[in-house]
Amino acid sequence: MIQRVAADDAAVLSLLNDEYARTIIVETYREPRSASALSTACDADPSTVYRRIGRLEDSGLLDAQQRLDPEGHHYKEYTARLEHVGVNVTADGLDVDVEYVEREAADTFTRLYEEFSG
Fold first, then answer.
1. Does the CA dihedral 32-36-40-43 come out positive or negative?
2. How many CB atoms lie within 10 A of CB 15?
3. For residues 41 and 88, which has the higher predicted lDDT (pLDDT)?
4. Domain count of the chain?
5. Maximum Cα–Cα distance for the chain, whole Å?
6. Residue 71: predicted pLDDT
């Protein structure tokens, strides 16, 4: 399901202007990724990646899910919520529309089940 909402234009454009934020969105679009994997993909320090993750989460463009590894440690994986961004020029300026992907609860349950049974 795709939800279409108006977004804070300046914040979304600023985030999308950032190379690290764009890489994080692209890397997490198809499958969840850990901060460590994102740090490698961005070729950036973990602190830099965590700052971008925080900004993307605050803007609603990224979701986090708690994971449990086989050794019992907890960590987060991140998934992009961004589906589409449209920019329209109007007489009043730029109008930015953002489409978010809504993850279904059943998908989350299935993923959790697979983690614990696999």
1. positive
2. 24
3. 41
4. 1
5. 57
6. 85
Bridge partners (DSSP) listed for residue 77: 34, 65
The whole domain housing 31 covers 2-117
- Rounded to the nearest integer, the mean pLDDT of the chain is 84
Order of all β-strands in the sheet with 82-90: 2-6, 93-101, 82-90
| Angstrom distance (rounded) from CA 33 to CA 63 | 11
Query: What residues pair up with 87 in beta bridges, in sequence order?
Result: 96
Give the CA angle between residues 90, 96, 100 to the nearest 5°: 150
What CATH number has the domain bearing residue 19?
1.10.10.10
If you ran DSSP here, which 8-state letter would residue 72 be given?
S
Using only C-alpha atoms, the chain has a radius of gyration, in whole angstroms, of 16
Q: What percent of the chain has pLDDT over 90?
A: 47
pLDDT in tens, 32-45: 999 999 999 999 99
